[in-house]
Design a protein that fits this description.
Helices cover 56% and strands 7% of the residues. It is built from 15 helices and five strands. Strands 1-2-3 form a three-stranded antiparallel β-sheet. Strands 4-5 form a two-stranded antiparallel ribbon. The protein is globular, with a radius of gyration of 25 Å. It starts with a helix and ends in a 16-residue tail after the last helix.
């Protein structure tokens, strides 16, 4: 049977062995030709899954699998076993000492590593039951509560959100250079469509279209159907922090100083510029966007330096304080409507003005 199906004898990889056994069962049930077609469909499904999985998700899986490997080495457990006990022990180890420096992970990081490790186990043909994974998650939740009760606050916490005062400080601190104009456009436009660091890095010139009422930004780097969107950015009443004017000034200067080739729709929207003001020929990457936003905010003297996520948090929280509808905020920022993460970004300043019990008695 295996020869008829063109299968290798006894593959050593567990996932390959499981796939081969499945094909043999299909052949016994439906015949060799049907089994081959079903196998081809499985290959297509694998290819589609690889195509639609974002690169940063693949990176996370790889990092988390290395954490799992370190745990297995430390606990003298086999890597290709995903029992309830092993997963609970993994969670406890991560919270206790799992980081490379011997310190414990924050519960949110441990949760990410647990989920990705289970994915890695299943990809390698290991059976991990839903009940066993649920047991590990329950242990993680309970241990996280114990850490809070003991007064431990792990992790960096939520990034500082950009606000209007910060945007004004940034605009005033940007020098009158191409780099300064790019920085201003990067922050002001990014705030208005709630950008992640990968969003401006992925933009091409042709993705940003001038409209009589502002800009239309085609955000194509999102991970969900909600985050891939055409975000509309209107002219601001205050010209000092107007994203449309900032974008126009930056692009006009780029073409004037470095040539008309930068007006081509296929060129990067946000170019990479070295410390001497030379355009290096490529576009910014997510890491350089994150570094730039931190540098820009520090130059402007904002109280807490911004991160690559500060613009995204800022749009949600500032728009909410201004009374914008939650659905409109979700659509602009590429969140699912009533997204839990979006609601989390709608930060309360101090809990006094926006207090559920205020004025009840």
């Amino acid at each position: 049977m295996t020869a008829e199906l063109g299968l290798l004898p006894s593959p050593t990889d567990p996932a390959a062995a499981e796939r081969q056994a499945l094909i043999v069962r299909w052949a016994e049930r439906h015949g060799v030709d049907a089994a081959r077609r079903l196998a081809e469909a499985e290959d297509l499904a694998d290819a589609v899954a690889a195509e639609i999985t974002p690169d940063n998700t693949v990176d996370t899986y790889g990092k988390s699998w290395r954490v799992w490997e370190r745990f297995c080495a430390a606990a003298s457990l086999p890597q290709l076993e995903g029992s309830r006990g092993a997963l609970v022990a993994f969670v406890a180890w991560m919270l206790r000492e799992g980081q490379q420096n011997g310190q414990g992970y924050a519960a949110t990081s441990a949760s990410t590593h647990l989920a990705a490790a289970v994915v890695g186990l299943r990809e390698r043909g290991v059976k991990v039951s839903g009940d066993d994974q649920a047991g590990a998650r329950a242990a993680l939740a309970g241990l996280a509560v114990k850490l809070l009760q003991a007064g431990e606050r792990r992790g960096r916490g939520q990034a500082a959100g950009a606000d209007i005062d910060g945007l004004r400080a940034v605009a005033r601190a940007c020098p009158d250079t191409l780099t300064g104009d790019r920085d201003k456009a990067l922050v002001l436009t990014g705030f208005h469509y709630a950008s992640r660091s990968q969003d401006p890095a992925g933009l091409l010139t042709g993705d940003v279209i001038l409209h009589p009422r502002g800009l239309v930004v085609a955000v194509l780097t999102g991970k969900t159907k909600h985050s891939v969107r055409n975000a509309k950015i209107r002219y601001a009443d205050d010209p000092e922090i107007c994203p449309v004017r900032a974008w126009t000034v930056y692009r006009t200067r780029l073409v004037a100083e470095h040539g008309p080739q930068w007006a081509d729709p296929s060129t990067p929207a946000f170019v990479s510029i070295d410390r001497w003001g030379h355009v290096t020929g490529g576009g910014m990457v997510p890491e350089s966007v994150t570094r730039a936003i931190k540098r820009i905010s520090m130059r402007a003297g904002v109280p807490i330096a911004w991160t690559g996520h500060s613009l995204r948090i800022g749009l949600a929280s500032v728009a909410r304080r201004a009374g914008r509808d939650g659905i409109a905020i979700a659509d602009q920022g590429g969140w699912a409507r009533h997204s839990r993460s979006m609601l989390g970004y709608m930060q309360r300043d101090d809990g006094w003005d926006d207090n559920a019990s205020a004025g009840l008695a």
